[in-house]
Amino acid sequence: MSDADILSLLVFALCLAGSMFFSGSETAITSYGDRRARRAKEEGGREGNLLGWWVDEPVSVLSTILLGNNITNTLMGATATALAIRHLEKTPWGSWAVPVAVVVTTGLLLIFGEIVPKALGKLYTHRATIPVLAILKALSRVTRPLVWILAKITDAVISRAAASTEGSGTARVTSGELGYLVKVAEREGTIPAEQAQLLQQVFRFEDKIVRDIMVPLDRVVGVDMGWDIEKIKRVAHATGHSRLPVYHGDLDNIRGILHIKQIVGIELGEAATESSRFEMFERLLRSPFFVSESLLIHDLLRRFKEQRVHLAIVVDDGGDTVGVVTLEDVIEQIVGQIFDETDRAPLFAPLDSGVQYLDGQASLHTVSEALNVDFEDIDGVDSVGDLLTRMAGQMPIAGSVFVWEGIRFKILAADATRIIRVSVERVELEDDYDEG
């Protein structure tokens, strides 16, 4: 092997190492969190100065990297071609010298000049960024004229491209792309997890329909026009709802919406007869607002604003009532569960006395995990309400108390079809009792 061959191989190896350095540098720097880089810049020092260069002049940094990468790759290809021609031109394989050089160079660049260094750059982002920025800044002083020209050309092209898309009327970024950017920003710590979740819920908002968020008919609490005022007040107090649908006979025949505040001052004697009760409802009820279950919820929000109502009756394509939906249900799709002073307590709300509130529809699995109690698998029993109904042998009434595995359940609110609210507390086994 001649001295020329040794020199060519040395140049080839140095170029490959340079390609690895520049490719890995690009990945390491671009993977460095923007928020962390800005914070380091504010703190100052050597690290802050280097990261400040990246924050303030990203085009210059990238131009230095790409210039170095292209120079090393081009020189590497030329060296490999010269070596191949020198050793193959006088052989039967002489015509294959250039293709062989291209294949070998491309393979080595793909593996050692792209895949491996980029993977390492991603893996050691925070450890590698400062050293490579220091080297790149030194190189940028040597290549400043070329880097300056490249940066100016890049800025001009970007400005022209941005100007050409303004006012075009086309959406440059989709909600899916924004959602991806939010995920990346959350992962890098640019925005807090709570804000990221809020933004993701906004992006998902446009795809949901009323059926996705409504309260199904079998869980709707309503009042019959034949009920007396005191019973209606008890139901309103137990549920905490400020508005209730009013039906005649069953929930498929909803006549209107009753605002509970309208009956606060009405005494039982004012509606003692059925006819007077009907007259009272006719006077107090507000016309029901019906919406289709397939309506998009952002359209539902607009209709709530237009109609100035907070509750809608949901119907299917055949016009049958399938549930209700409220303005609060819509807003909760963005901000999450909302509780106010009239809402029922959350699924588990511990009191100072050790008592907790449960929703009657809470699943046994959820309750068993929260209370550390192993409920048996019972066919047809999925919720706390189902369990208490099975224990009672019929639909229990408010005030009933049951004990199961050292847990005392007391029914606080129930209607003719379901258990609405339950309190629970641990008791000593000798105090266990069961009363319906």
TrEMBL record:
Entry's localization field: Cell membrane
Upper classification of the organism: Bacteria, Pseudomonadati, Myxococcota, Polyangia, Nannocystales
Keyword annotations from UniProtKB, A to Z: CBS domain, Cell membrane, Membrane, Repeat, Transmembrane, Transmembrane helix
Protein name (database record): CBS domain protein
GO molecular function list: flavin adenine dinucleotide binding
Bilayer topology annotation: Multi-pass membrane protein
Origin: domain of life: Bacteria
Similarity section: Belongs to the UPF0053 family.
Residues of the signal peptide: none
Entry's Gene Ontology cellular component terms: plasma membrane
Keyword DNA-binding applies: no
Start and end residues of each CBS domain: 284-341
Alphabetical list of Pfam families matching this protein: CBS, CNNM, CorC_HlyC
Transmembrane segments: 96-117
UniProt-listed SUPFAM superfamilies: CBS-domain pair, FAD-binding/transporter-associated domain-like
InterPro entries hit by this protein: CBS_dom, CBS_dom_sf, CNNM, FAD-bd_PCMH-like_sf, FAD-bd_PCMH_sub2, Ion_transp-like_CBS, Transptr-assoc_dom
Domain CNNM transmembrane: 1-195
